[in-house]
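Supplementary material to the annual report.
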Amino acid sequence: MKISCTQENLNQTINIVGHIASKNSNLPILSNILIKAENKNLTFSATNLEIGITAAMRGKVESDGEFSIDAKLLSSYISLLPKERIDLELADEELKIQCQKQKTKIKGQGAADFPLIPKIDKQNPYILSVKDLKDAIYGVSFSASTSDIRPELSGVFLSFNGEELVLAATDSYRLAEKKVKLISNEKQKNLTDFQGEKVIVPVKTLQEVSRILGLIKEDESMEVVDTVEIYLGENQIMFVYNGVELVSRLIEGQYPDYTQIIPDKFGSKLKINTTELTKAVKVTSLFTKSGVFDVRLDYNSDNELKITSSSSQTGENTSSVDMEKSGDSGEIVLNYRYLLDGLQNIGSENIEIEITDSNNPCVIRSENNKDYLYLIMPIRQ
Amino acid sequence: MKISCTQENLNQTINIVGHIASKNSNLPILSNILIKAENKNLTFSATNLEIGITAAMRGKVESDGEFSIDAKLLSSYISLLPKERIDLELADEELKIQCQKQKTKIKGQGAADFPLIPKIDKQNPYILSVKDLKDAIYGVSFSASTSDIRPELSGVFLSFNGEELVLAATDSYRLAEKKVKLISNEKQKNLTDFQGEKVIVPVKTLQEVSRILGLIKEDESMEVVDTVEIYLGENQIMFVYNGVELVSRLIEGQYPDYTQIIPDKFGSKLKINTTELTKAVKVTSLFTKSGVFDVRLDYNSDNELKITSSSSQTGENTSSVDMEKSGDSGEIVLNYRYLLDGLQNIGSENIEIEITDSNNPCVIRSENNKDYLYLIMPIRQ
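Predicted assembly:
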């Protein structure tokens, strides 16, 4: 194998695939990146056996071959090189790398031991915009469960149907749901018996997708496509974006029918500035009892929401925020961490809180964007 | 006690003194800030029994009194308040704080239990510029020993004499020394038998001084003085700056006569660009043996310094950097972490390395500023 490329391309490609390579004492080769030169094509791959990433790279192939090399060392090394041409050549189980006055030999392992990364047929993709997918991942992932007791809740639910992709996540204390328009649903177009598809994707997979979507930058040598293709296979999902293919296993199981718990009517609606409410909740949260996260929202006034907490150790606090209220008066007690999570991710200047009563879930919506919903279970007193 | 002030002043004052307040299970009050209103003056204090900080604050005193309150809670709370007027009032062992729509009561402890912060007579100060002191602390502190086996090496040596303050620190593997001009030496002026003074100051104390020097910003209500006064007392040192007084214990013991190990002649002098050398050392450091930090500097060529390392696990590397050499050829092996520490702190475009031979300490100097010196003991092969 003998290849050459620019430092910028090599550095970006290693960043894309190398992130999931990691130390594994049972299978040390998982800390490596596989470099493959074949028929003038260059690809870089890495896998943690749950997620596999393969990225094509522009470069000159003088002779074919493949070799695997420690991802962390390669990444640290290449990132420190000047933005110049890099020559790589395989000789005696070592990769010789030269860039201007920098000469190095890195030991590695043959490609034969590298695990196969599964493929999914590239047929009938769901296509959506990069920005929509990134926003949706950001908007819902944080609500997934961090425990493995109910594995299906540790993933994000994706439902493809018609022109729409719905993403949802819940840890059973709060729920986030985001609806995204599909640019194209090729399955619906081409398969007469298409009934929609529902899958559960590990949060880590979506975080990795989101990371990669943010990495690829347009430059003079490259035009960047701003859409992502999603393919579903047998218990697997593949995201394809600008020459990068990320394949991941899915989480098996039945996702709960969360739509049941979303109230279809409410007694009170509070419209509040997001930043003001966030500040007020942060202040009041300083005065909760140690280990307890309750803050009380008092909406008895017509135009002022009072947020209160007290503790025998630290003292007590009342923060007030202007609001526009319609409907009934009342009080509800919420976990301030769940409330802050929602406020941080909603991304709109004002929010609307819909409350049934102190025992039923309250729903927070963005003022303008009705495609996003965040629901919190109250703490019953 | 009843006082009022601006959020900006209160926030800055709490930041200045509160940083050293910390949890102490033997003496819980050490996590508090002491607030004192007396004769129209407002002061805030905190101590960890090694360092005590007292800061004066502008504000309106309606009635005198003193009270102590948890530093972390107070700091978090005040930092979240709007930049408006704040009213504080002591009532029933609680501090009532009001700022616009924010109302709170914080529990605290009476001032009687708060440890006394020692004072040093403000006579005959050493006066120097804030910038010089900050640069010197930054330039030498990192070389002090992090172990307590030889307590005197865990501090920074300060020698006041004539028009000069010399700061030095060494962990016996490397040494940093910085000379700073005194704006005024009042002791020398006023005491006929003045012979100079030498003290050892804990690194933490100097880091705290440096932090405070960076915190106080000029604003419309306040002119900031850009000099620091230093007073020495019985086993104590006091730094005074814009109404803030920091008192610290000194480290007892005799500081080694480090000047003996600074070579007064050398066989080779290498002039190198600091950034280029830093990059090259970082690259080569990737290829040292695990747990070993040796890199070899080969200055046999007339105009190219070669930096090499190799390991049976990862591979090998050679980085080359342009240099101007005068004197002999040779090789020397250094710990790359010590070398990088020096290069990071030297703050000049080019450096000069003075080498005697592979067994004797080498000296790194800034090209322009001869007041700074960094010395590294070589690794004998």
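Residues 272 and 323 of chain B are 5 Å apart (CA to CA).
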